[in-house]
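User: Hey, my collaborator sent me this sequence without any context and asked if I could get a structure. I don't really work with proteins. Can you help?
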Amino acid sequence: MWRSLLARTVVGLVLSFQGLARAGQETPAPDEPPLPEFVLPTVEVIGKDVPQTPVDSAQRRDPTGAITVIDARERVGEARDTAELLSGSASLVVQDSGGYGQSKSLVVRGASSNGVLVFLDGIPLNGAGGVADLSLIPVALLERMEILRGAAGARYGAGGLGGAVNLVTRAPSSRLLSSGEVTYGSFDTVMAHVAASGALLDGQALVLLHGGRSQGDYSYRVDELPALDDNPLTQEVRTRNDARGGGALLKYRYGLDGGGRVDVLAELSLEDRALAGTVQNPTVSRRQDQTRLSLGARWGRPFGDTGEGSARGFFRRDWLDVTGGTTGVDSGAQHYTVGGVEVEGRAVLGPNALAVTLAGSSESVTQAVGGQAASWWRASVMAMDELSLFSERVKLVPSLRVERVGHYSLLSPKLGASVDLGRGFGVRANVGQSHRAPSFLELYIRQGLLLPNPELKPERALSVDAAALWHDDVWNVTAGGFAAVYENLIAYELYPPMLAKPYNFAAARVWGAEVEVEARPRAWLTATSSYAWTRTQNRYGDPRYFGKELPYRPRHKWVGRLRVGPDWLNGRTEVLVQSAQLINRVGEARLSLPSRTWVSVGASSTFLHKPDLTVSFDVKNLLDARTADYTGMPLPGRAAYVTFAVALDPSASEDSHVASPP
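Assistant: No problem. I've predicted the 3D structure and written it out in structure-token form, which is a compact way to encode the shape of the chain:
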């Protein structure tokens, strides 16, 4: 009932918003900045004009970090979900458990999914289990994605063993803009969103509504007797793969005197999906219902020419309910709440740019079964100095975060350096330490057959990376290597008679190389490529596992993408090649997921302007490569989608051929 009422309220707001925005457009503020229409490069490079970079961007937070920025606006009508966009980044592997709406998480530089921090406009998305589910973030919400690989503890806090990802949502505009998009495709999948932006109450506002659903059933072939040679394959159908969901994004921006600004965000996500279980233990009626409400506000302003300050507050509440399981195994409804504040000041004192951050937050989780509940506080102080030498050609960036998470005290130092060699060449290097405190579920909450262990210690990562960079008006190239040692890793072990319990007994080493290349020789031609070679080694003393590669960590991954043509007609293709990956710690080759090569092609045409009407057609996994998720369940094969989009910008000049959707 409350969801229906909320939906009607939001729809009414959108219908009335157009009139308010049109009225506000007639008297825009004279000092109001125009909506930026630049395109962010895929690879961040040394030499970029720092003052033009947003204050809370990854480049400002970690000036020497291994950072990739992906512009979601360049993939409008093409990508089905956020995980699909992120999969093109080097050393980042998506762990997929199905089609549309099914769980998707990240592995970065060999770190587990619960060792990668994910934020939505700075609001942490990692839940009580420490894992962020990307399936709950539709592409329609996003403007860009900022990916930091390597030790992220100093700048982002506990949990960033392998890195951090900040998903930046669309910005509101002072102009009256509206857009909509609908997609239909394989597995009876339908997705749609509408958005409107414009001037409102002396500020700028954005309203976006989205929704989708997928039946998800698809056929696959399986060898039911793999021990026999030449055994015929049997045709099966994967069921329990359906999902549906929707939500809304509301943003408001208000300019203050003296160059200050206030940004307010409210985001709601609703999802209901079937849970297929594993190949060995498929479920018949198990489902997951999840709701997320996120609220955030940020204030920032410059102080003269050498200082700036900002303050951020956020709140997030997750409602998670799993039903249909076996009696005694259901975890019951779970509520997770997190809220906090962060204050940061930055001042330029000669060659030094000093930044200090104070942060505090509270987390709690409750579980219906047994009335289980737990809560704790987080508090931290971070200091960073960006020291510029030799006419700013050399930068040294030491940083340190002291953090208290529950009853754990954590210390996360980092030292970065970069050198601008001239003619577009540069080098950078980083060394740092990060921690991940055990999650609430690992510490306090029983989950079916999984027991908690309140004696767990925080995981720790020691990381180092270095890279060479080159850029000019056409090319951006980054090539480098990395290494990390993970200690006190938490893993579950059998706890007789039929339970499992987490312990600190795992350790691992990871090392590898990364290459990212982007070329834009013409306005109508873009090519990108990324390659990662990653080696992992289990350092746990048990001879059965010692020296073996970690499961679900492919050694090779290459992604190449080409887009050709103007807006009125363009084509694109993307190829992802990923090597085989083990599925257990023993390292037996026969127990592995095979290598995969995914080829996707598509075309788009903006065949009408004012309003802009665009039709897109995409074929994913053109070669129908078949593989499975980490539980052995088959993943979808070939899929086709058609998308129809409309964008209206009444304030665009008569000779303009491009409208800017909100």
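In plain terms: The first helix runs from residue 2 to 25. You can pass these tokens on to your collaborator as they are.
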